[in-house]
Amino acid sequence: MQTTNEKYYINNHLSFIVSFHQNLETHSARVVGFEVKAFSINHEYDDQWGYINRLSTCDPRAKRSVTGFDPPQEVDDQEEVIFTYDVEFRESDIKWASRWDTYLLTADDQIHWFSTVNSLMIVLSISGMVAMIMLRTLHRDIFEYDQLDNLEEAQEQTGWKLVHMDVFRPPVNSQLLCVLVGTGVHLLATILITIIFMVSGILSPSNLLDEYIFVTVVVWALTGIFGGWAMARLLYKTFGESEWNMKASLTTAFVFPGTVFCILYVLYSLTSSGESWRAVLYDSMVSLLLLLLVISAPLVFMGSYICFTFIGPETKETEKTSKIPREIPEQSWYMSPIFTIMVGGIIPFVVVFELSSMLTSIDLHHFCYMFGMVFVILIITCAEVTIVLCYFQLCREDYRWCWRSYLTAGSSAFYVFIYATFYFFTEPNITELVPGVFYFGYLLIASSALFMLTGTIGFYACLWFIRRIYASLAIV
Predict the structure, then answer these.
(1) 172: how many CB neighbours lie within 10 A of its CB?
(2) Half-sphere exposure of 201 (CA within 13 A, CB side)
(3) Which of 398, 453, 456 is nearest to 234 (CA)?
(4) Could you tell me which of 169, 6, 14 has the C-alpha nearest to residue 75?
(5) Lowest pLDDT segment from 10-19, 367-376, 397-406, 424-433
(6) Rounded to an integer, what is the distance from CA 205 to the centroid of its chain?
(7) Phi, psi dihedral angles at 123 (to 5 degrees)
(8) N or C: which end of the chain has fewer CB within 10 A?
(9) pLDDT digit string (tens) for 194-250?
């Protein structure tokens, strides 16, 4: 019910400002942008209203334009409302190729850059720690170990040097680890190629969301050969398996994309009401399934089989290990697997400063940029954190680094899921069931992909680190 003190106003005037760029070479002009401003104005005119009368509040001949200082138009019973508009053309210095840069501007640039510098400082600090370990501690340990004269003196030593006969031992469930790493490499190749398309201008803000999704899915299908190759190289060359493993290739090709397909099918089934929606859902799901079966899966098999075929016994990277595994000393509580894994995931999560702005941009349908810098910082941080924790683990004579390095970097996805859940209950105004199901469905897909991506980065960083330090060690 309307009270006597309440008044309602309506925006009855639109002011269009069309910007164009003049090309002096071709003597042509192209529209590079426009703005629309809404005003509420109580129009005035002489005598009775008609098409031949002119408004005294909006008269282009008298150069009388609408401003925000005019009396507003009140909405009331039996009150006439006159709707008007005006158009103004302005020459702009913005070129045609830069017309979309306006949408990349944000209102909180200072906070944005402060977060960027803060994250870079964290990365530099961790980089300094890694450099200190590599250049000082390791070189000193290697020099002292190489100066030992006999085996008895070597056995009296402690630390990472004593596990050289066990550090390259294949881990438990090595096939599952290879599948996860292969899927992570597949995701990494997809993201890198998509970012290259964005930077080169092949994909721009002018493209619709459907075009972004289409390009990403096609790139995913075409990069399946990288995932198969990485899985096979790790399984057959690093861990030394000698027979062709069809199960590993099948798992790499179908588990993650099949899970994503099932989640999307359930989500969009919730919104499919009517024959038209069901037809669109059926066509989209069939297209996605055909892309997986016809392109992605065969490329995964091709990459794994080619890698298996070209790897001979003489090219295997398996290092000599002892027949009896070395006994691992009792570890302190702060070096337990659960504690180090959970602590190791906090730093990459904190460094990814864009998470809050990413969720806000998605919620408000804004553009999210600087994704390439965020991705580079994430890669560096995951690699350095896992290297530091792996070194501390080896110093405690614990050689079970494979799964721990993967889970340490991958645990950052757990914190992302927790933060996004907290964001759901505090920021966006989602009260219905279906939007909430969509939110958590997409969040589950994104968190799973982030887990395999960061875990792969951490595993390869530790694998490189261990090969470097033990290659420099003269075994007594």
Answers:
(1) 10
(2) 5
(3) 456
(4) 6
(5) 367-376
(6) 17
(7) -65, -40
(8) N
(9) 888 877 777 765 556 677 788 888 999 999 999 999 999 888 888 877 788 888 999
Task: Identify the CA nearest to 456 among candidates 221, 257, 190.
Answer: 190
State the Cα torsion 104-110-112-117 to the nearest 10°. 130
Give this prediction's pTM.
Answer: 0.76
How far is residue 471's CA from residue 466's CA, in Å, rounded to a whole number?
8
Whole-angstrom Cα distance, residue 279 to residue 208?
22
Q: Residues 273-285: what's their mean pLDDT? A: 60
pLDDT > 90 in the chain, percent: 20
Using alpha carbons, select from 291, 264, 268 the residue that is nearest to residue 280.
Answer: 268
Provide the 8-state DSSP code for 113: H
Q: Where are the alpha helices (DSSP H) in 150-173?
A: 151-155
d(CA 187, CA 454): 10
- Please report the pLDDT score of residue 109 as a whole number: 52
Angle separating helix axes 402-410 and 337-351, nearest 10 degrees? 40
3-class DSSP state for residue 309?
helix
Tokens 């690093």 correspond to 238
Sole residue written with tokens 């192209």: 30
203 three-state secondary structure: coil
Taking alpha carbons only, the member of 456, 447, 438, 442 closest to residue 418 is: 447
**Model confidence over 393-415: pLDDT tens digits?**
888 888 889 999 999 999 999 99
Q: Two tokens at 86? A: 């005006």
Which amino acid is present at 36? V
Give pLDDT, residue 154: 46
CB 307 within 8 Å of CB 148: no
Q: CA separation (Å) from 308 to 241, 242, 316, 424?
A: 10, 9, 11, 46
**146 Cβ partners below 8 Å, 6+ apart?**
473, 474
Tokens representing 107 are: 């209102």
Alpha-helical runs (H) found in 352-411? 355-364, 371-395, 402-410
The CA distance from 201 to 211, in Å, is 14
Name the residue among 289, 143, 131, 320 with its Cα closest to residue 217. 289
Per residue in 109-136, pLDDT (tens digit) is 555 666 667 777 777 777 777 777 666 6
